[in-house]
Amino acid sequence: MAPGVFLPDIDAGEATTPRAFRAIIAGGGVAGLVLANAFERGGVDYVLLERRNEVAANAGASICMVPNGCRILDQLGFYEAFCNSTVPVRVFLDRDSNGNLMGPGSDISQMGRARTGYELSFGDRQALLQIMYDGIEDKKKILRNKKVVDVVHSDNGVTVKCEDGTTYQGDVLLGADGVYSKTRQALWDLAASEHPEQVKRDRNALVAEYQCLFGTCSKVDGLDIGDAEYGYGQGRSSLVATCKEGRTYYFIFQKMDTTYRGTSFPHYSKKDAEEFAKAHFDMKIRPNVTFEALWKNTLGSNLVVLEEGTFDLWTYGRIACVGDSVHKMTPNVGYGGNTAIESAAALASVVKELVDKANGGHLTESQIKEYFSSYQKARKHRADGIVKRAGDVTRLQALQKAAFMRHIIGHLGDFLPNRQAEMVVDSLPITFLPIPRRSVMGTMPYNPAQGENHVESKLKRLALALPFLLLSVLAAKLMAPDPLIPWATSILQSKKLPWTDEPLPTTFYNIQWLDNLLAPVIVFFSPVLLDIEGVSQQALHFLVDFGVVLAIWLIESTRRANNFTLSQLPLLFALSSQFIGVAVISPIYYLLHYINAPIANFKASDMRLTRVAYTKSILPATILTYYIPLYLSFFAPSFTDRVSWNFLWQIYPVFLSPLASYVFFRLFPDTTKSDRLNNVKSDLSAIRFTVGILSAHSALLWLYTFAKSNFSLGALAEVVLPPLHSPQDAPDLVTFAGEFLRFDEAFLFGNTFLWLAYLFWDIKHAGMLSMGWGRILGYAVLALVALGPGATVGLGFLWREELLATRRHWAAMTEEKALEWNRKLGVEWDEGEKKTDGKKVDWKK
C-alpha cells in the first residue's frame, strides 16, 4: 500500500496571535493545497485545516490532468514532477458493449500538447497531493486532524472552531472542504436572511443520477499503456486508463433507479462496492478483457454516488468556497480536479489582490465582498458549462441517446479536441505568478475573450449579414429568366438559331432529362459562343474571374474551421449557380459562411489549416474541368465543337469533385493528421500557388484587354459594370444574354468584395490588423483598376490567409505578453526552455 501524505502536528495556541491578514483554508485536498502553495509564493499568510490524519488515503482515487489544470501546476512548479509519475494518454478509444471499437481513436492528448503545451495524463490523486504537499516550505501552516465544526463570522474577521477544541482566527475563510462542505453550510446559514431564495435553491442544487465504482489496479494483460478507453452500454459505461508500468485507473458508471436531490445522498460500504463490482464482472473493457480481470488486480477502490451541480452562492461576507464545494461534476471528461485547481487559482489571485490592497492594514467586509464577488463572476459561467458538459457525456456514454452515439461516434473527427479547446482556451492562471514559457508556445494561446462563455451569437451574425440575403433577392428579381423562356422555346422547337445557319445541337450526354435540362442554358450561351455583338469578351472575363472565386470556395471547403458547415459543399453552390445564376447563389454562400466563421473559430492555428492533399489538387482539377472546357467553349474551331465543350463545362462541378477527390488527391500524400500537430502552415504554399496562379491568369487577361482597348478605362468599365437597365427590359436574346452576364458579374464581385470586407472587419475587431479602412479601400481600388476584379479578390483572400496564419487575437496570451507579464514580476525564462512555433517538440528532457 502506498503511504498517505502525513502532516506534522502543530500547537494551535498561536491562533490568537494578531496578524495583519490571514486566510484560513478549510480542506487539504487538491484545491486547498493549490491555495496553500499559491499563498506561500505570494507572501499571503494562511493556515490550512485538514480534517484527516493524512491528506489522501489510498482509496484508489485518480486524477486526469488536462491543459487548464496543467498550466497552473506549471506555475507552481509541479507539472514536471506529476508528468514523471505517470505517462501521457496516447489515444482515447470508444468501445461498444462488446468491447469493439466504435470508431478511430482520438489523439486529443497530442492535440492538447500541440495547442497548449500540455498533454492529458491520468495519475494517482495521492501522488499529486504528495507533490503539492512537498512543495510547501513552511509545513507548520498545514494542520491535520482539524475537523471544522463551527464558524463565527463578524465585521472584523472570522473564527473557525475545530472538533478538537482549537480555534483559529483570520480575515477570510476559504472552503475547499469538498461536496459536503461545512464551510458552505456556514455560508448558507449566514446568507439565509439576506438571500433566502438563493440559499433555498442551493440546498437543492445537487442531483445524483449515477453511481460510480472507481479504483486503481496493477497491470492487466490485454490493456496497453497509454490507452484511455470509454466503454458504452445501456444504462452503464466505463472509463479505463492504463498508465506507467501498466497501472490502471478504472471508473464503472451505473444509472441508478432513483434520482437523488439536495444534500442527502446514499453512502456505500466496502461490501456494497464488492457487490457492485461482481454485478459488473461481465462488462467488456476490450473483446478479450472483462472488468473481472481489473477487479482481481485492484489496489484500492470506492463506490460513490456522482453528485452534479453548481451553486448560486459561492461567497458571502468573509467566506468563499472553492472546488467541489461550489461545482461538482461527473468524472467522465476528467475536468473535476482541473476545475477545482482553476477555481483555486482564481480565488488565490483575488486574495493576493486583497492583501496588496490592505498593505498591512485592515480590510472591511464590504471590500472583501467586492473582491470575492469578482472571483465568482470570473469562474461561475465556466464552471456551469463544464459541469453540464460532463453530465452530457455521462448520459451519452450510458446510451441514453443510443442511436445518436452508435451512428455518429465514428465520424466526429476532431470534434472532441475542439470541444476541449472551447473548455480550455479561456481558463485562468494565477495572476501573481510567472507564466510558464511552455504555455505560450503552442498553436492555441490562452485567451480570456474566447471559449464557451464568449461564443458570438449566430443570430447576431445573421442580422449583420442580412445585406447578403437582400442582394440575393434583388438579383433574383432583376435577373429572373422569364424573358428567356419564349425565346429558348422557339429556338429549341425549330432547332435553329437566328444568327447562324449551323444547326444547334440539343443533345450531348444522351441522357434525356440531363440534355433537356441543359438545352435552354445552351440556347442562352449561344450568342456568347458565336460572339454576337461582342458579348464573348465580356463573358470570358467574367467566367475567368469566377474561376478565382471558385478556387477560394474549394479551399474554404476543406478548412478545418468549416467542418460540419455548408461551406464544405461549394460544388453544390457552384452547380446551382449554373442554372440559377451566381448573382443569386453567391450571397447565400457568403451569408452561411459568415454566420459560421467567426474569428474565434481560428483560436487554434490548426483550425485555419486546410487538407493539404486536396488543396494541392484544386489547381490541376480546376484547370482540367473548368478552364479547359471554358476556353474550348469560346475558341474551338467549329460552333458544334464549342457547343459540345459548353455542354461539358455547364456541369463542371460534377466532374471537378471526383477529379479533385479521387484522382489528384491520391497523387499527393495526405499529411493533415500530422500537420495539425506539427506544421499548421503546411498548406500555405499550396494556397498561395493556387490562388496566385489563377489570380495572375485573371490579371493577364485584364491587362491584355486593357492594352487592346488602347488603355481605355471606359472600355474596361463596360466589361465589368452593370448596365443601366435590367435584363428584364431586353428586347432580344442577345441583349438579354449580354446584360444578364454583366449583372451576374457585378453582383458576384460586389457580393465577394462585401464578404471580404466582413471578414476583414472581424480581423480588425480581433486586433489582428491595425490598418485603417481608408487605406484598405485604397489598396482595393488600386488593385481593381490595375489587375481586375478576379485578381483583386484573390489578393484579398491571400492577405486574409496570411493574417490568420501569422497574427493573434488582441486578448491572446502570446509569447510577447507573457514576457512582459513575467518582467513585471522580475522573472525571465531560462534559455534552455523549449518552444514549438508549430514544430514538433518533445517537452520531456
TrEMBL record:
Pfam families: FAD_binding_3 (PF01494). One of its GO terms (molecular function) is FAD binding. Residues 23-358 form the FAD-binding domain. The keyword Oxidoreductase applies. It comes from the Eukaryota. The keyword Transmembrane helix applies. InterPro entries: FAD-bd (IPR002938), FAD/NAD-bd_sf (IPR036188), FAD_mOase_fung (IPR050562). Its cofactor is FAD. The chain crosses the membrane at residues 567-592, 613-635, 647-665, 686-707, 776-799. Keywords: FAD, Flavoprotein, Membrane, Oxidoreductase, Transmembrane, Transmembrane helix. PANTHER family: FAD-BINDING DOMAIN-CONTAINING PROTEIN-RELATED, FAD-DEPENDENT MONOOXYGENASE ASQG-RELATED. Belongs to the paxM FAD-dependent monooxygenase family. This is FAD-binding domain-containing protein. It comes from Cercophora newfieldiana. The lineage of its organism: Eukaryota, Fungi, Dikarya, Ascomycota, Pezizomycotina.
